[in-house]
Target: Amidohydrolase-related domain-containing protein
Amino acid sequence: LPFMELATTIRGGTLVTAAGSRRADLGIDTSGRVAAIEPSLPPGREDIDASGLFLLPGGVDSHCHIEQRTSTGLTPVDDFFTASVSALAGGTTTIVPFACQHRGQRIADVVAAYRETASKAAADYAIHIIVTDPSEPHASEDLR
Model:
């Protein structure tokens, strides 16, 4: 990979994937993404020795409640930043919180509001919409 500058090289770990496990070096590019997985990589600006350690993919939490207002108006204490930082500390790199539509709300407005709120997340995220009022006038349009 002579053309690629690696920000970080993680060396000597055991890479674990769905296909199995093997000893490998991981190269992280300047955007923070895994750019290379090879038996041996050139040094990065930073080298991390992972000898004797497992390198695992990040987890996905597909059922969480973050800043989800209840029908009584209560909201959990964690916001998207604190909840996502906690998730990352435990190896979860993607969170999928529920976005609940309350009676009379447009589905599109609920999604837009959650996207805005979730913009402060430190981890990747998706949104799982809970449709509670499919009869509202714009539901068919919003669900396209």
Notes: The chain is about 20% helix and 35% strand. Strands lie at 8-17, 20-28, 34-38, 46-49, 54-55, 59-64, 92-100, 124-125, 128-130. The domain at 8-55 is CATH 2.30.40.10 (Urease, subunit C; domain 1). Residues 107-118 form the longest helix (12 residues).
